[in-house]
C-alpha cells in the first residue's frame, strides 16, 4: 500500500497514491493475518498527507468489520493518522468515533511529532 519501515517499535507507513476502501480492507487483513492472535501491542503511524481516496461515510461500516480482526489479533492496536486535508480528517474522526474497542485506538494528527507523542503514552 505504501512505504513501510519500523522505528523504535512503531510501524511507519507512508501512503502517497490513490486508494479505495477495498485497498484498505485487503491491506488490513494481510497485516493482521501475519500475526498470531493476541500477539502484542502494535503502534502505527500512517502518513496520508500525500494520499487521495474515494472512501466515503458509507464505506466506514465495511472498514469497521475489517478492523475487528485487528482487535482479535493484538492486545492493543494504536493507529495515528497524519492528515492535512479537512475532508479526510473529518472522515477519519467519524471513523474514530465508530470504533468502540479498548484494544483498537485511532486518532488523527496534523504532524508526525504529535502522532509519535500520542503513541508513546
Topology:
Elements lengths: L2 E5 L2 E5 L3 E2 L1 H13 L7 E7 L4 E2 L6 H14 L2 E7 L3 H13 L5 E6 L2 H9 L1
Parallel strand pairs: 2-4, 3-5, 4-6, 6-7
Antiparallel strand pairs: 1-2
Helix pairs in contact: 1-2
Explain what this protein looks like in three dimensions.
With 121 residues, the chain is α/β, with parallel strands linked by helices. The protein has 4 helices and 7 strands, in the order E-E-E-H-E-E-H-E-H-E-H. The chain has a 5-stranded mixed sheet, with helices on both faces. Strands 3-5 form a two-stranded parallel sheet. A hairpin with a 2-residue loop joins strand 1 (3-7) and strand 2.
Characteristic terms for this protein:
121 residues, alpha/beta, five-stranded mixed beta sheet, two-stranded parallel ribbon, 4 helices, globular
**Secondary structure category:** alpha/beta
Helix content: 40-55%
Summarize model confidence as the mean pLDDT: 88
List the strand order in the largest sheet: 1-2-4-6-7
Quaternary state reads single chain
Beta-strand proportion: 25-35%
Kindly, what is the distance between the CA atoms of the first and last residues, rounded to a whole number of angstroms?
A: 27 Å
Radius of gyration from the CA trace?
A: 13 Å
Q: Major sheet, described briefly?
A: 5 strands, mixed
Q: Got a strand count?
A: 7
Amino acid at each position: 500500500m505504501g512505504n513501510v519501515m519500523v522505528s523504535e517499535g512503531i510501524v511507519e507507513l507512508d501512503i502517497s497514491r490513490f486508494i479505495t476502501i477495498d485497498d484498505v480492507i485487503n491491506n488490513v487483513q494481510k497485516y493482521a493475518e501475519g500475526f498470531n492472535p493476541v500477539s502484542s501491542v502494535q503502534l502505527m503511524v500512517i502518513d496520508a498527507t500525500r494520499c487521495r481516496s474515494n472512501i466515503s461515510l458509507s464505506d466506514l461500516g465495511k472498514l469497521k468489520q475489517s478492523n475487528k480482526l485487528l482487535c482479535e489479533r493484538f492486545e492493543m492496536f494504536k493507529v495515528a493518522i497524519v492528515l492535512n486535508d479537512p475532508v479526510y480528517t473529518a472522515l477519519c474522526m467519524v471513523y474514530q468515533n465508530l470504533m468502540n474497542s479498548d484494544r483498537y485506538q485511532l486518532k488523527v494528527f496534523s504532524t508526525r511529532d504529535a502522532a509519535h507523542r500520542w503513541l508513546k503514552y
